[in-house]
Each structure stands twice: as structure tokens, then as C-alpha cells.
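We were asked to recover a plausible sequence for a given structure. The inputs and outputs are reproduced exactly as logged, with field labels preserved.

PROBLEM: sequence recovery
POSITIONS: 85
GIVEN STRUCTURE:
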């Protein structure tokens, strides 16, 4: 019973992490279009403004996905340890 609850909590945390990864990706995509709307058509100016936003969103997404995969392995170990009813 305790193991099932732990697996369920880990699954909920993984879902939250995937939602955060999706939100971080949307964040830099929206800023990409927003920079064009602000009138930045020069490639160098555009990239110098987008680069910090992109890396913040990209690293957040990758971090969330990596944490989710770590939680998945923990969940799989818990499932292996518990006998099926």
C-alpha cells in the first residue's frame, strides 16, 4: 500500500516536471515571435536578445526532463521490489 502511494506521488511529480518542460519551451518560442514583433529583424541583434532567453528555457526543459527520468527509474525500482497482488 505504501509503495503504491509512493509510485503515484512520483508519477504526479513526473507529470508536473513534463508540464514545466513544456512551459519552458513555450516561453522561448513565444519570446522568439515577440522579438520579431518588437521590430528586431537584424540577425545579430535578434540572436543577441534571444540567446539568454533560449538558454534559460532550454536548460530548464532539459533539467526537468532529466529529473523526470531519474524519478522514473526510482519508480521502476519500487515496482520491481513490490510483489504483485
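RECOVERED SEQUENCE:
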Amino acid at each position: 500500500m505504501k509503495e503504491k502511494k509512493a509510485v503515484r506521488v512520483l508519477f504526479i511529480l513526473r507529470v508536473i516536471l513534463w508540464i514545466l518542460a513544456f512551459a519552458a519551451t513555450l516561453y522561448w518560442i513565444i519570446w522568439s515571435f515577440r522579438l520579431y514583433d518588437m521590430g528586431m529583424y537584424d540577425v545579430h541583434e535578434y540572436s543577441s536578445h534571444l540567446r539568454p532567453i533560449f538558454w534559460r528555457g532550454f536548460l530548464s526543459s532539459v533539467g526537468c526532463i532529466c529529473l523526470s527520468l531519474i524519478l522514473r527509474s526510482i519508480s521502476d525500482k519500487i515496482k520491481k521490489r513490490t510483489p504483485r497482488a
